[in-house]
Amino acid sequence: MTHAALTEMSGLEFLRYAFALPADQRPPVIGDLFGMDVLSLEDGTVSFSIQSLPSAANPLGTLHGGACATLLDSVMGCSIHTKLGPGVGYGTLELKVNYIRTVPVDGRTLIGTGSVIHVGRSTATAEGRVVDPDGKLVAHGTTTCMIYS
């Protein structure tokens, strides 16, 4: 697909197109580093998953908080992206994360879901949640993103 065609896609269309491509046919993204899988891309809401692996452990042997922060930043930002028009971008201005419980690094799947709260002309806000396989809340957060027109 040409660059011109990509810039004519809405944010949701672009994300669906980009994540449908094999990893070797698209530019690398932070999700590749964390092994994120896209579970759903809907208008205003997205869900991704990661595995709690030993390679992401903190010195205490549990999952480093940066893994959940990255998952939350990704799902909240992409939820905003789904609401943007063609050629409009965004960037995180502020990220707030609350950690609820520790996560063992035993390969369990964590699911992050981000949902839009508000999209304006110059900023947007979203909220997100990370849950473990039992549906227990691991972390939650909010973000404010700048809209680049």
What does this protein look like?
- The protein is α+β, with helices and mostly antiparallel strands.
- It has a single domain (3-148), classed as Thiol Ester Dehydrase, Chain A (Roll).
- β5 (123-131) and β6 form a beta hairpin.
- A six-stranded antiparallel beta sheet has the order 1-2-4-5-6-3, with helices on one face.
- The relative contact order is 0.19.
- The two termini are 22 Å apart.
- The mean pLDDT is 94.
- The protein is 25% helix and 38% strand.
- The chain has helices spanning 3-7, 11-20, 30-34, 65-81; strands spanning 37-42, 45-51, 89-99, 109-119, 123-131, 137-148.
- It is built from four helices and six strands.
Please specify the SSE layout and strand pairing.
Blueprint: H1 3-7, H2 11-20, H3 30-34, E1 37-42, E2 45-51, H4 65-81, E3 89-99, E4 109-119, E5 123-131, E6 137-148
Antiparallel strand pairs: 1-2, 2-4, 3-6, 4-5, 5-6
